[in-house]
Amino acid sequence: MALEIDRVTKRFGAFPAVQSVSLIVAPGEFLALLGPSGSGKTTLLRVVGGLDVPEEGQLRFDAQDMTLTPARERRVGFVFQNYALFRHMTVAQNIAFGLDVRPSSTRPPAREIKRRVQALLARMQLEDMGARYPSQLSGGQRQRVALARALAIEPRILLLDEPFGALDAKVRKGLRQWLRTLHDEMKLTTIMVTHDQEEALALADRVAIMNAGRIEQVGTARELRETPATPFVRDFLDDTPSHAQGSGI
Amino acid sequence: MTASPPRKEFHPPTRESFATRVVLVSVAVLYISLFLFTPLIAVFTEGFRNGVDAFLNAIVEKDALAAVKLTFIVAGIAVPLNSLFGLAAAWAIAKHDFKGKSLLITLIDLPFSVSPVISGLVYVLLFGAHGFLGPTLDALGIKIIFTTAGLVLATMFVTFPFVARELIPLMQEQGVSEEEAAISLGASGWQTFWNVTLPNVRWALLYGVLLCNARAMGEFGAVSVVSGHIRGLTNTMPLHVEILYNEYNFAAAFAVASLLALLALVTLVLKSALEWHYGEEIAASHRH
Amino acid sequence: MPGFGLTFGFTVFYLSAIVLIPLAALLIRPWELGVAGVIDAVSAPRVVASLKLSFGAAAIASAINGVFGLIVAWVLVRYRFPGKRIVDALVDLPFALPTAVAGIALTTLYAPNGWIGSALAPFGIHVAFTPLGIVVALTFIGLPFVVRSVQPVLDDLDREYEEAAATLGATRGQAFRRVVFPTILPAWLTGIALAFARAVGEYGSVIFIAGNMPFISEITPLLIVIKLEQFDYAGAAAVGAAMLAISFAMLLAINTLQAWARARST
Predict the structure, then answer these.
(1) pLDDT for A220-231, tens place per residue?
(2) Which chains form contacts with chain B, at 3 or more CB pairs under 8 Å?
(3) Of all residues in chain C, what percent carry a pLDDT higher than 70?
């Protein structure tokens, strides 16, 4: 699915969190939103997911206006920074949630739901974890459950908010490679928010660098490094050590 | 969050529709008004029904004044004793480890789940004319039931946990590191308590004392059982309200009741003020 | 840490003197009637009728508070509206207002010529001096418990869970039923149990509005007082001990609920 963000502005009171941002994400592309905290990247992701509504601008999925479509009708797979797994449900119930809540006219039969959950568990290398509760899982396992739950609804686009933010450095490196492989298999349009430039540049096809509610530059890792469009982009990419807090070394 | 008005119709996913919100707020406000606000208004309206003079006359009447005085005496004894107990229990429980700690906490909370009538009954069974110790005390010339002593005991029972249950969770949360530091610097146990522990829990202590006092001054069931309802002698304010009401002297009953309602309002205002200003320094359960 | 001997000793002494020894008297006293006598005293028709009334009315009142307390807690945590702080502070009124004052105020309101009673009378609904009046008084007394139990849990509940439910296609109702409600369930049940326990033993606010007719509107605590006034100490103690036993079971249930709630929140 192609995503078009067209001059979107989102304010919180008088504070402009996102200012007239335009961005096009191609079908099957993996795009990273990179920037310091407070740069508006999570807000932009939430606007795409339907969790916040923009004051100005338009949002299009495959040329169809989605700006005012409620989150539950958008079919976006949203993975939250802290996963937001339902604590009182097992892993399998968490993954099945998006299918279970469908109206009976579009809900797959119980056996089909079960089969899909099993398939996702297998894909996430969590075969034996279906009956466990989130509190009984490691951080990396929870992250994969959150991803499986988002994928279960067969989303048109995958939105990841700091997907590795809550993990330690070792787990993070392994999952990063695994996520890229998964993306290459599924060819699902993906936007990932991160403040870790190494992660963004290593994983994404293209990186959009945000600062103070605006996109400074969009490009491949190489383009950004070789021809930074603004002083901010150059400084931000030079500034590796001070951003090491995010990469957890 | 104050978002600018959204264009057309967009429901943020964690917000109910406008109609739902209006209905829920209305139901809640109506419920609170019906069950809490209206009775409160009724107390004052009935108290002033026959004018301010009648209200004042009912309050300065001899037996009413005696009831006010007795209420203050009873609370004045029961509240400090229970506060002292609360501090001691919290120090023993929160700052030390021992077996049976959770049993002790449960036992301290016990009076909350005992009917007020039973709280009075137990002292009648012990000290009453036909009680276990009644004849012995009688021989010694000591009377407890139908005297101020009985009222104080019954009040102590019903308000027993108030201060302790505010202090124990807070002091457990605060741990012992500050006290250990003070002692390693040469402070005595008493100095440590006075200069380190007490300042850390002062607002929670005040909070507990406030609730303890409100209940002590307003208690009815327990004191009713041990009082004997002797006018001018063993009538606290709530008991005086009952006597006036049962004599169909409604205006006077509500006049005295107004005083108690005023006490309740002052308690609520102070309690809210403590929660808003010192919420972090009270207990976890009151942070909202 | 110093001072353990002193404070622990004082704690145990004071607890024993004020609470434990007097309660022991309650448990010992009935047996002077003999086992058969105790059973007779507790199973007398008038006692059984009063127990049914006390527990039945308390159950209805705590159920009412379960429903409306949840709505009040939700509104106080999630919405902003004029007068919210006053409503929030007023919720604790039943903790602060002496029960006798509440009793005479409710009686006056719901009497046939009272503000509310006169509005209900044309419909044939009589509240004061009927069992319905007892339910009203017990609802008043139990109102804060559900609100104050649910409020902090709801406050701590991150909005992300509901947002996640929404992105997965859940309606607002489904998000509440399947995500929010199971999370607050232990706190909600705890609040209902606390309101119930309080209502069962309540005396002051009930006796004015109840009418106090034996077999119809006579609550158990009042029956204890009546037995005591007739110097039937052992009978009063027997009924009191029976109530205490039930309260103990309630306390146990509440503690179990709270342990469950803690286990769920980790």
Answers:
(1) 999 998 999 999
(2) A, C
(3) 99
Yes or no: domain A1-75+156-249 corresponds to CATH 3.40.50.300:
yes
Domain extent at residue C209:
34-265
Could A153 and C168 be called an inter-chain contact, meaning their C-beta atoms sit closer than 8 Å?
yes
Q: Would you say A249 and A169 are in contact if contact means Cβ atoms under 8 Å apart?
A: yes
Highest mean pLDDT among C24-28, C138-142, C255-259 belongs to C138-142
Whether the Cβ atoms of residue C136 and residue C59 lie closer than 8 Å to each other: no
- pLDDT per residue over A5-27, tens digit each? 999 999 998 888 999 999 999 99
Q: Given an 8 Å threshold on Cβ–Cβ distance, is B40 in contact with C97?
A: yes
> What are B122's two structure tokens?
């137990």
* Count of structural domains, chain C: 1
- The CA distance from B8 to the nearest CA of chain C, in Å, is 20
Answer whether C161 touches B (CB < 8 Å): no
**Does residue C189 sit within a domain?**
yes
Q: Which residues contact C4 (CB under 8 A, 6 or more apart)?
A: B92, B95, B96, B98
Task: Name the closest residue on chain B to residue A57, using Cα atoms.
Answer: B7
- A95: phi > 0 → left, psi -120 to 50 → alpha, else beta; which? alpha
Any B CB within 8 A of A24 CB: no
pLDDT recorded at residue B1: 43
Instruction: Check pLDDT > 50 for residue C151.
Output: yes
What are the residues of chain C with a beta carbon less than 8 Å away from any beta carbon of chain A?
158, 160-161, 163-171, 174, 178-179, 182-183, 264-266
Q: Provide ipTM, 2 decimals.
A: 0.91
Query: Is residue C182 one of the residues assigned to a domain?
Result: yes
Helix axes C233-264, C34-43, angle to 10 degrees: 70
